[in-house]
Amino acid sequence: MEEGRISSSQLTLLVISFLFGTSLLLSPGRGAGQDSWLATLLGLGEGFIFALLNLALYNRFSGQSLVEINELVWGPIIGKFFSAAFLWYLFHLGSSGFAIFVTLLKTAIFMVTPEYILLVTGLITCIYTCKQGIEVISRMNEVLLFSTLFLFAFSLFLMLNIFEPKNLLPVLDLPVKKLLWVAHGTATFPFGQIIALAMVWPFLNETEQYRKSLFKGLIVAGIILILGEIRTGAVLGKISGFYVFPTYEAYRMINIAGVLTRLELIPVLNFLTMGFIKASILLYATSLGTAQMLKLRTYRPLVFPLGVLMIILAAQNYANISQHLEFTENIHPLYALPFQVILPLITLLMALIRGFPKQEVSK
Questions:
Q1: Helix, coil or strand: residue 27
Q2: Ordered mean pLDDT values, 10 residues apiece, the chain (363 residues)
């Protein structure tokens, strides 16, 4: 069904890009104001707990995807129910990514372009990439991620003259309960979403390196996201919470001697590259998982119809960006828990009870 293989370093880069995705633009800690960096730091800590669960499943079933694990542990009927719930979550994440993609482009660049043209354009690119397999996605990601990291580092340098550390004060300016809620939100978006990579881990050609790749990717992505929150908070101050895309607004304030100004194209490019990789991984994982659940020989015929359904849901899911933000900040932290934690944890416990050790799983 999938003959491609990826190295441990490619998996690390995939983890980083997947966590960047929409997070480089849609600030995960947005609800914490100038404490957004602290909320992201706490969310990263909680994200490590999610990663440990992810790792426990991998150590026991390193040759199997989560869909295959569900069927092995629960049997063909209940296993399909668990897999369908997991695949719905991946599908919904993908449609949400497309929705943010359209909102940004219509806000920043293509104000009068019909929404469906933007959706179809993004979808065609993702469909072509997904049909090439995980190896091609990983190779494309190497180039796109390093260009994104370069632009991120370059932008930090450009913002030095408008960087105001006092805008980050006072620390802990909001109630602890509110801070912990926002931190939990950042744990589920984006860190907990790495459960999607449970459809990718069977293709790692260095199985013993999975733990190192996973945690390296988490740490690097977490540090960069925290730096991004510090940068945006120091530039915009308390007003950052009033913007839909605070990172985009921070870039608009760059002014180097009246020559380098209005460089908001940089975060747009970063979002397009990392958002493309995340959407491709989600579409690939959904297609592959559906094919495995239905016992098909290949996932490729499913990529196009599932992709079309994704953009239809993206167009219908949220009437406006305010509803999307409401979902992300107030509903997703609870909505995501069954898919990111509860179902995988129950599956792991059942595997322990039924005695499915790693060595009994066929590679």
A1: coil
A2: 88 97 85 90 96 92 91 94 97 92 79 84 94 96 96 91 91 91 95 95 90 96 95 88 85 85 87 94 97 95 96 81 83 96 96 74 41
Q: Which fold has domain 13-353?
A: Amino acid/polyamine transporter I (1.20.1740)
260 three-state secondary structure: strand
Q: Beta partners for 261?
A: 255
In whole angstroms, give the CA distance from residue 113 to residue 116. Answer: 9
Phi–psi pair at 186, nearest 5 degrees? -70, -25
Taking each helix axis from N to C terminus, what angle separates 210-236 and 36-60, rounded to the nearest 10 degrees? 170
Of 72, 3, 29, residue with least CA distance to 328: 29
- In angstroms, the CA 258 to CA 147 distance is 25
Measure the CA–CA gap between 61 and 7, rounded to whole angstroms. Answer: 18
Helix then strand count (H, E) for the chain reads 15, 2
